[in-house]
Amino acid sequence: MIDTGEMQEIVRNLLNSQRLAVLSTQMSGQPYSNLIAFAVTPDLKGILFATTRATRKYANLTTEPRVSLLMDNRSNQETDFGEASAVTILGTAAEVLGPDRESYLPVYLQKHPYLEEFVSSPTCALIRVKVEKYIMVTQFQEVREIYPAP
Questions:
Q1: Which phi and psi (to 5°) does residue 112 adopt?
Q2: Based on the number of CB atoms within 10 Å of its own CB, is 123 exposed (0-12), middle (13-18) or buried (19 or more)?
């Protein structure tokens, strides 16, 4: 049996090994998905990503902040059915402003330094998803829920 600390480490390793995630938002009951460059906060309580304020993604987030994200380590091979891991993250998204932005920005840029010019643009919003829970799937059907420490 894997304990919570071990599961958090498995989640952390998966998130740190991946650069992209699928973000799912909604507007008027219609789901909408985007590929995003993300970073996870060291405490696993937040997922960070950047987007310009003129996007449908940003409009959806301001209308309905509840989101889902999916990250995985698949290689698009048959072996993925037994070996790939995926994590779904459920949470609430909000733009990070002021001093909070200054403290979260280095976390994001450490993983994505090539996006510094984009994130520094006055039209770009840094978004933090406050993680409610992680749903980790391994070996195609092993499902575990992990909650960030309060």
A1: -130, 65
A2: exposed
Q: What is the pTM of this model?
A: 0.91
**Residue among 47, 150, 58 nearest 89 (CA):** 47
Q: Of 14, 18, 16, 19, which Cα lies nearest the Cα of 112?
A: 19
Summarised one tens digit per residue, pLDDT across range 7-55 is 788 888 889 999 999 999 998 889 999 999 999 999 999 999 999 999 9
**Cα separations (Å) of 9 from 13, 38, 98, 113, 136?**
6, 18, 31, 24, 12
| Cα distance between residue 25 and residue 36, in whole Å | 12
- Residues 6 or more apart whose CB falls under 8 angstroms from that of 66 comprise 26, 90, 91, 92, 93
Residue type, 52: T
Q: What is the pLDDT of residues 54-101, one digit of tens each?
A: 999 999 999 999 999 999 888 776 765 767 788 999 999 999 999 999
Structure tokens at 13: 């390793």
